[in-house]
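User: Predict Succinate-semialdehyde dehydrogenase/glutarate-semialdehyde dehydrogenase's structure from this.
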Amino acid sequence: MSILNDVPKQLFIGGKWLDAEAGATMPVDDPATGEILCQVADAGPEDARLAEEAAVAAQEDWARTAPRARSEILRRAYEIILSRTDELALLMTSEMGKPLAEARGEVAYAAEFFRWFSEEAVRIDGGGYGVLPDGRNRMLLTRRPVGPCLLITPWNFPLAMGTRKIGPAIAAGCTMVFKPAPQTPLTSLALAGILREAGLPDGVLNVVTTSRADKVVEPLLRGGRIRKLSFTGSTQVGRILLAQCADTVVRASMELGGNAPFIVFDDADLDAAVDGAMIAKMRNMGEACTAANRFFVHSSVADEFAVRLAERMGALVVGPGTHDGVDVGPLIDDAGRAKVEELVADAVGRGARVLVGGATPDGPGRFYPPTVLAGVDPASRLMDTEIFGPVAAILTFDDEDEVIRVANDTPWGLVGYVFTAGLDRSLRVSERLEVGMVGLNTGLVSNPAAPFGGIKQSGLGREGGRVGIDEFLEYQYLAMPVK
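Assistant:
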């Protein structure tokens, strides 16, 4: 595949492409076939130290760079990304599996973070000046970059998760060590090349691809020179990283797991509810932290909703993401598919009815069919486990208070979806859900202009929106005597 030949396979440190220590490499495979696409550099602790040194060395000059200059670099990168939509989409599909149409959508979504933060870069202000209440001092508030950052991204949105973190860091004046997921390093390396082309100075962004995250990340967090961690991934890993941040009090923002409830009331527009369910469940083959995990449908409309959803899910075409007409690509790896298989088997063993799907197809690749389960026992494992696959589990309810109680009965609180025609109920239920985001009569909440993030064990802080840049800035207060 020619696109693979054009993508760097080395580490990007201090503006140079470098081999990993001892020439170590790791494979990148195609989840649609299981075949190896290529080998990329597999960084070790010494490589991470070099990347950290490059980021620290570049920090002072980069922090003094004019906001307009930082803005223009992001704007140029935005335009380059869009000009290479087809190439980047094919690269993502090759290493991650999503259909090309969906990958093209991610390119547009990812690019928009750079455009959004190019506009925010020139709007940084302290927001405070005046005489303090005691009349003795004047106060001046300024904001400045927090310093060198460690950015860690997952494999499910290889381009967008990178731009969502890199964009505000550049806008704020922070340098970075960027560690992408080992399953999808190629998109991140291509992004580094784009930013270099857009004029990003050497050392501001350093990309360290590795299969040995524990050996690379912990020394950076405990070393005292990294001042900010931005992580997207599982809650389990997030807890470990937070503990590692504690020794040197590294500022951390976390976008962690989800267990999204999807609630359909008796007055809901079922056409809109099914449309919303298809988006909330099947975006990225269900491999998204925002994916609807638990479907609670009012008993009076549950049968009709289940039939309609099963029809729509059953009509989806499963296959390699590079093939025309494919709606559902493979899952990321064998472990991910095995997890889905086990969760479905557990639910069926507890009495759930399979309306469509539910059986792993023969042949190569990590494919799993779109699956709808009805009559799911609330004690099923998939009720308190992030499925990360194309499985919709339907339960029924009759009482509003009870469904809210059950929806909130989870340690996660990223997003919830509510479908109802009543304005009062819309607001009442949304306000009572213990989540950071609510999709009200819509199955899509993500937008670069909106603050993304959760509560409880779904994370700390927000990404995107006007507050997204705040995670990379800190206040400084100046006191001046009144004379």
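The chain has two domains: 2-256+458-479, 260-447.
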